[in-house]
Design brief:
Layout lengths: L2 H24 L6 H8 L3 H7 L3 H16 L12 H18 L2 H10 L1 H27 L8 H7 L3 H4 L2 H6 L4 H16 L14 H14 L1
Length: 218
């Protein structure tokens, strides 16, 4: 990638990240470019240098999410790939459910259906990949023989659990929820004699980082 193009892409990423927190909570339909420039903490002139319209911003956000969805570890014959793939999948599941909120999806579907379809298609592909991954793990004797669809459906519960009211009523922190959910998925998936393959020390800093990020957004 050309240095100038790369620099521009990085700046677009930085600016879109600034608006993402607002969009996931409040949606984007009522936002004007003036308000967007204030949230991004840049002048209108700077904003228009990187994004010509609001649709341009939303398209860039969707493209970034779609690219992230496709960033999975490539297939390998080694049994060792199952652990990093499981951990990457766990991290991705948490972050996707954090940023693809119901309000964002609803407004995307009604205002920018092409972007909505792109995002839904990427999510569908991810689900197929996850099911194939679980199936392969079962076949190789690494995972317990359980229906992968139920494991995927469980992730939807996180939206209800990672709620301020629920956390306060149950005296839980976001970190406690994430670490317990990680352990739950690990015990569900890996056969007892394969659990020792999983190095949790690699995940603790990531879970701490995600907990901080999610806590700020609550």
């Amino acid at each position: 990638m050309d240095h100038q193009i790369e620099k521009q892409h990085q700046m677009r990423q930085k600016l879109s990240n600034k608006i993402l927190g607002h969009v996931r909570k409040n949606g984007f339909q009522n936002l004007k470019m003036d308000e967007i420039s204030k949230i991004m903490d840049v002048s209108r002139a700077t904003l228009y240098k990187y994004f010509s319209t609001k649709e341009d911003i939303i398209t860039f956000i969707v493209s970034s999410i779609v690219d992230y969805i496709h960033e999975m570890i490539e297939h390998s014959d080694s049994d060792q790939v199952f652990v990093p793939r499981f951990q990457q999948s766990f991290e991705q599941s948490i972050l996707l459910r954090e940023y693809i909120t119901d309000i964002f999806l609803r407004e995307l579907e009604s205002s920018y259906p092409e972007n909505y379809d792109r995002l839904r298609e990427a999510m569908k592909q991810r689900e197929h990949q996850e099911l194939a991954f679980y199936g392969e793990g079962i076949q190789k004797g690494i995972f317990n023989d359980i229906d992968g669809r139920l494991i995927i459906m469980q992730d939807d519960l996180l939206r209800n659990v990672l709620d301020v009211k629920y956390l306060m009523e149950n005296h839980l922190t976001v970190y406690q929820v994430l670490i317990n959910y990680y352990n739950l998925k690990k015990l569900q998936l890996f056969k007892p004699d394969k659990i020792k393959m999983v190095d949790d020390s690699l995940m603790i800093p990531k879970i701490e980082y995600m907990a901080q990020k999610i806590s700020k957004n609550l």
